Amino acid sequence: MPVAPIPISEIEPVSHQRKQCESILTSYVRRYLGKSDFFNERNSISDKLLFFGRQSLLVKLEDTLLKKQSVGIFGVRKSGKTSVMNQISSLLRLKSFPVINIDLQVFGEEAGIRNRIFKEIVCQLHKLLALSEDTDEAIDRFSSISPEEYTSENFVELFEKISASLTQNGFGMPVVILLDEMERIMPRPADSIEKVKEFNVIMGCLRALSQEKKILSMLVTDVYPDCNRVNQWPQKNISSNPVYKFFEEFYLAPFKEEQTVDMLQDIGNLMGLEVGELLAKDIHDKSGGHPYIARQIAHYMYDNLASEESLLATPMSEEDWAEMLIDFDEISNYFEKGILEHFSARNLDIETMILEKLSGLIEDSKGMQYDRLIVELSRGFSKRRSVEAVSHLSKLGLVKQTKSAEGRFLTLSIPILATWMVN
User: Fold this and answer.
1) Which of 14, 83, 214, 319 is the most buried (most CB within 10 A)?
2) Global pTM exceeds 0.90
3) In whole angstroms, what is the distance from residue 133 CA to residue 146 CA?
């Protein structure tokens, strides 16, 4: 019998709204019972069936969060940060822990984020309480005491009251708040003092609920760990960052070969498509284990090279790879906008320079000696900044470091990124 799996994280928030439930059901039936290309997933993954390679990380994150410690997930764009967040949300909900999901894209560009974020958190807590009591009376009861304007004091007090009611209705503690894309609300040098103060109030309250009240854990995502690394703001006469060194940091590493092979073959099975092991290994090698790039390569091959027997087995020739980089805009756009333009926007010129230097050594399997690179970079940058940049790119999974009897060597982790940059 055909089955359409629907994540509980999508059902639970709308379980009392018939039209939205019908809409979700219809979309998943069409998705799984129709002919879909599951390689071509450009948004975050909610489906457990399409989530691969991060199971051990989920175990670590769950254990850390339930110990009332907060965590940050960092990595390049499209590395799977929001997908990991979606999965941890589903896991914790299944175990009856209250989970609050906040997409910070909605809040970052306008003033007044403190009140809007506090209101959203309280609103989601209300909904969880109403579901647990199976009545709208819970929402009415707490809404009647919800203020129009939130202060630190009344937000913390209300959070404690609703959390206590949730515990009485069978929920576990702590409440877990998931904050996606912290960069959207992170203070910038050009921001007003008022906006920086709002950030400090928001994060200060959440930290107090975690450290002092012991009823909250946070999981945040971002490309860079600025929220955890910046202590003092550039604005004058402003308190320091309340979440400085507060989060345990996790970086999303590239997949190992067996993880990429399993992902491509399992997705192929969902599509009635056989993906050969040699081909899957070739895709892993070219993508460097970056799951989004690997899936997009498979998507391109499925569209252009799949046989009538629903088989993807033959690795592409070098000419095919070069043609793909010319014809397939998705990967080129990702390299340009998702990596290089993002570095440029943050004035990370040295990171871009390292990628350019290493891409020029594409034919040299050993790459560039670490000490030589640091010396070359130090002609235009400090040695400390040069070392930080190499470390940064390594944590992001863009540069790979290997050691041999001859010393430490650096190569680009994603070979087709090197090919694209050279061309």
Assistant:
1) 83
2) no
3) 19
